[in-house]
Amino acid sequence: MALRYIRKKMDPVLRKKTAPVSRFTPQLLDLLDDMIETMFEAEGIGLAAPQVGISKSIIVVRNEDKVLEIINPEIINGEGEELDIEGCLSFPGVYAEVPRFNRLGVKGMNRAGKSITINAQGLMSRVLQHEIDHLHGIVLIDKALRLLTQEEINKMNE
């Protein structure tokens, strides 16, 4: 496993739509392991492949004590709307109010190429939507209704 460099702000790879994964190779497994290690090292709760410079449809997400790896994720349903504050490893120090579905269904594949379906709500629903946005070239500031001021960020960190 190896740490990957997290792409920041206006890096062009963050704006590209990703390609689906069609081959489950040892390199894919290495990438998944590297993404997980990078996410933990950066103290994030989600990471998409474009954030480490790879234009493939892959995300990893922390779910309490386990990690979800989702290849070719697609949102299959969503309901309820919730406005909350988000940050992003590619936009360090930037926080924004972003509306998201409160409940969500996602389908995709695991590292073995088997179909999986995930039903999530609350924070996990938000994280999944945020990471899937990255796969479509959509970043935090695109969805933000409002960026927080430095004073608001300071209060959050107190």
Overview of this structure, please?
The chain is of the alpha+beta class. The protein has one domain (12-157): Peptide Deformylase, CATH 3.90.45. Helices cover 27% and strands 34% of the residues. It has four helices and six strands, in the order αβββββααβα. The chain has helices at 26-41, 122-135, 140-143, 150-157, and strands spanning 46-48, 58-63, 66-86, 96-109, 115-121, 146-147. Strands 1, 2, 3, 4, 5 and 6 form a six-stranded antiparallel beta sheet that branches. A hairpin with a 2-residue loop joins β2 (58-63) and β3 (66-86). It is globular. It starts with 25 loop residues before the first helix and ends with a helix.
Task: Set down the secondary structure blueprint.
Elements: H1 26-41, E1 46-48, E2 58-63, E3 66-86, E4 96-109, E5 115-121, H2 122-135, H3 140-143, E6 146-147, H4 150-157
Antiparallel strand pairs: 1-2, 2-3, 3-4, 4-5, 4-6
CATH domain fold name: Peptide Deformylase
Q: Determine Rg (CA atoms, Å).
A: 15 Å
CATH class: Alpha Beta
CATH homologous superfamily - what is it? Answer: Peptide deformylase
Number of contiguous helices? 4
Choose one word for the global shape. globular
Beta-strand fraction estimate: 25-35%
What separation lies between the terminal Cα atoms?
35 Å
H-E order: HEEEEEHHEH
Structural class label = alpha+beta
Helix content: 25-40%
**Number of extended strands:** 6
Report mean pLDDT, rounded to a whole number: 95
Instruction: Give the domain tally.
Output: 1
- For the record, the CATH architecture stands as Alpha-Beta Complex
